[in-house]
Amino acid sequence: MIEVEVHQRLRAFLREQGKPYWSHHLTMARLVARALRLGRSALLQTDALSRYQGRYRLSYLVPVLLWPGAVVLVASEEVQQRLLMVEIPQLGQWVEASKPIRTGDRFPGEDFKGLLLTTPETWLRDRLLGEGRFPEAIPTILDGVDDLEQWANATLTSRLQPRDWEALMLACPKHTDAIRDARVQLTKTIFQRPPNPYNCCLLEPYEQRILECLFEFLLATSPTPPIPVEWQPFYPIGSTSAQILWAGISRQLGQFTLHVSPMQVSEALQPIWTKQPVILIGGALDLDAEANVYRQRLGLEDLTCVKFTPDRQDELIHLYLPERLPMPNTEQFQRALMQEMHSLLRFSSGGQGLTVLLVGDTPLKAQIGSRLAAEFGSRVQVERTCLDDNGVLVTGWEFWQTYQAVLPTPQVMAVATLPLPSLEDPLIAGRVTYYKRQRQDWFRLFLLPEALNKLQRAIAPVRERQGVVAMFDSRVVHRSYGQQVLTALAPFARVNYLDASLFNQPDCPLME
Asked: What is the pTM of this model?
């Protein structure tokens, strides 16, 4: 069977390399080989560090290269380049296979028996919109499905750019005045909203009514008006409660962009999983081995689920979690947070490695950055990529997620508060309202999984150096969901105080 050959080839390669590779390589390789042989879908959860480093990719490359049939690999362009330039050439002399390898946005042809690499955006667009560029029944591996829900949502979101209003006027030249009036009304009402950090807003019923009246007028004057294709997803307005209509706002340009997005992608994704066997691979997907919450949100039903445990010896972090800090929503929290961060920098100043302070609140982030820079000098930077190896980076979650792969590996990371999505974000508030209407647990099914995914991915680089993570959100200690947060942070050794030995010596005082 292919499982035996895959095991033997990969084991010989790992022994020859003599490097500390991922401990679950052989198990995952056999699972992928079995899924290919049986044509059965599988969901494989690695850990956040392996996802960050990509160490697991050898495990699916060996069975893919030895499999006699065609395989589609869906991965980002960065991952594709890494595979083509590093991993696949490394395996060349150990996996003697003449399988052709191509990249592209469509399947090469019926006779193609090789490996096709394509992007998530291309593959999802084909499957969700029925473009027919990829045949059914071809085994497909999706690498990095931590972001699958966001990819699908972006694919299913329709947009109206400012230029699309001009296109509508050109398509309906007799109704230019009505179209222009509707645009002016929307511009006025949208820009009357108070600014928010998210530069977007949900369309209120009276704003949706402006669009409805425009469509009704166009249809009444002509039974089949030549409405451009970009406008068609927006009519009928409010036809289903499972969609969210919102506007992105550019106040500097005085323009807005209309969007219609699904509240949930599970209904749209569910039919595509039956078109071919799929192997979905991700890191921080779900705390549960069966990934019930993740599968519910992605419309995944009958498939094999495996969750690999992280290696305690290689991925252990030192977790500092003070128990008596004020709650984040109190006036005393900011002062206590500043004192803790000051102590953290004072003790870590003699160590080596980047220190990252993650602060989700934008005004608080600026205040902390300026106060720490006044005391510690240019060593402290706020959301900058040009940093010393011993620098201090004060950053929000989005900036860190975007640039963590190119920044120095941190030795210390402080988390001010859990990255729970803010209900002040209109899009988050809209989704929470939808969950409430469906009588579903919006916190357990939406907010908490989002926060845990972001937290695990954020601290993954710290695990490379078995560094220190300081968690200053006392809800981890006092709320019922705190145990789930600690499970997401595992493996860790908890420390109950800070001193210089924690940052300068490997044998720091630990408390299990």
From this structure: 0.90
